[in-house]
């Protein structure tokens, strides 16, 4: 949707932008999902898969007309689950604002950063006792970036707190709603800031140029990873054999991973799939991988006998039990997979389950929420009380009346 938004912004048009900023229970979309309402009434994107888009469409047009941002909650009331709300039982907070060159002068620079794969975060005030604060934003880069941050919240204290936390989210690669006191107090309430993180795609490093690696590269790309296939054998590590990989590297796996880590190209979102099941490749590689301070997942292919032999070799190499426990081996979930494609699904399923805290069982056999959330950082919004009903389409702030509900 960014190309559409940028095109209208460059033409000097006003656009309605609705962004999911918080969710509870079985909400269909995660924070950061957006919907645009263009200058000719065009609707682009979705925040709920169709549940509340009609109501949001009208609200966005109102916001564009009067320029007053609105934080709106959509949920289900006890008496009418089919009103304008979420029949799945979820709850969404959606921030609706008018975007133009006047209200968002930094958008062009943000778009350029995204195009250049420069990590950038946009922190927007979505709730505050003083309605004039709503919509104020900061564009935040990492500490190593020469620009630091641009924009203003109108308070040095608030800016310092938000910039610090936004950089933490930028490092972890996910968007979040943060809560502060009205002037950025760490332990206070009253101000909520949604931080949208635009970071390069997380990496999937696949070692071993075999048919299972080709299937893994394909599903990794489908899941949004930037996939690298690495093998020391040039006859196997070829672009024609791995068309779905973003890059194919001929190098010794352990040497390549060590160099990537040294260059800062491995982070807490990176997943490592070791498919070589050959000790001369995978033991030196896993020595490096299991000692990395930040990596999301390390899985290794092989039979249970291969796994036990591998653990013995790694212990002989000096790895501790705390380091070895990070290894997922045999790789993947127990799906009964046999083909390379089925095995790739099994591996992807394990990565997704570990990312979100799933257990890999059939949803039909378990109770509780379908969707899970990651563990958060300071300031994460707590879930609303389960006492009482959530009434559909109730604004948290009705800025037109100047009241907080």
From TrEMBL:
InterPro entries: MoCofactor_Util/Proc (IPR052698), XdhC_CoxI (IPR003777), XdhC_Rossmann_dom (IPR027051)
Biased composition (Basic and acidic residues): 395-405
UniProt xrefs under Gene3D superfamilies: NAD(P)-binding Rossmann-like Domain
Bilayer-spanning residue ranges: none
Spans annotated as Disordered: 367-405
A Pfam family annotated for this UniProt entry: XdhC_C
Protein name: Xanthine dehydrogenase
């Amino acid at each position: 949707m960014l190309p559409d938004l940028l095109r209208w912004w460059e033409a000097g048009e006003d656009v309605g932008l609705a962004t999911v900023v918080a969710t509870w229970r079985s909400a269909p979309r995660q924070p950061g999902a957006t919907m645009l309402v263009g200058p000719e009434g065009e609707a682009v994107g979705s925040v709920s898969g169709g549940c509340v888009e009609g109501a949001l469409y009208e609200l966005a047009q109102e916001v564009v007309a009067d320029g007053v941002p609105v934080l709106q909650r959509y949920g289900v009331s006890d008496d009418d689950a089919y009103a304008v709300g979420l029949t799945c039982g979820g709850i969404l907070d959606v921030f609706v604002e008018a975007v133009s060159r006047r209200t968002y002068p930094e958008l062009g620079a943000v778009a350029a950063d995204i195009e250049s794969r420069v990590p950038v975060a946009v922190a927007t005030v979505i709730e505050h006792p003083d309605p004039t604060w709503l919509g104020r934003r900061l564009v935040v880069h990492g500490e190593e970036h020469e620009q630091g941050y641009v924009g203003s919240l109108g308070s040095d204290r608030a800016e310092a707190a938000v910039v610090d936390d936004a950089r933490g989210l930028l490092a972890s690669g996910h968007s979040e709603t943060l809560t502060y006191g009205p002037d950025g107090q760490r332990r206070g309430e009253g101000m909520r800031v949604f931080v949208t993180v635009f970071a390069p795609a997380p990496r999937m490093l696949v070692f071993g140029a075999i048919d299972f690696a080709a299937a893994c590269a394909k599903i990794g790309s489908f899941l949004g990873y930037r996939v690298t296939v690495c093998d020391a054998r040039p006859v196997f590590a070829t672009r024609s054999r791995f068309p779905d990989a973003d890059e194919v590297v001929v190098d010794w796996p352990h040497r390549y991973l060590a160099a990537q880590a040294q260059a800062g190209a491995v982070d807490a979102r990176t997943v490592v799939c070791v498919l070589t099941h050959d000790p001369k490749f995978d033991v030196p590689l896993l020595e490096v991988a299991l000692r990395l301070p930040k990596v999301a997942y390390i899985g290794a292919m092989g039979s249970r006998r291969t796994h036990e032999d591998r653990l013995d070799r790694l212990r002989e190499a000096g790895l501790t039990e705390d380091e070895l426990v990070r290894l997922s081996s045999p790789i993947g979930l127990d799906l009964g997979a046999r083909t390379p494609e089925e095995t790739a699904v099994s591996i992807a399923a394990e990565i997704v389950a570990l990312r979100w805290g799933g257990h890999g069982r059939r949803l039909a056999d378990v109770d509780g929420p379908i969707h899970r959330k990651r563990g958060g950082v300071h300031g994460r919004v707590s879930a609303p009380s389960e006492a009482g009903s959530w009434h559909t389409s109730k604004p948290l702030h009705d800025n037109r009346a100047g009241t907080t509900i």
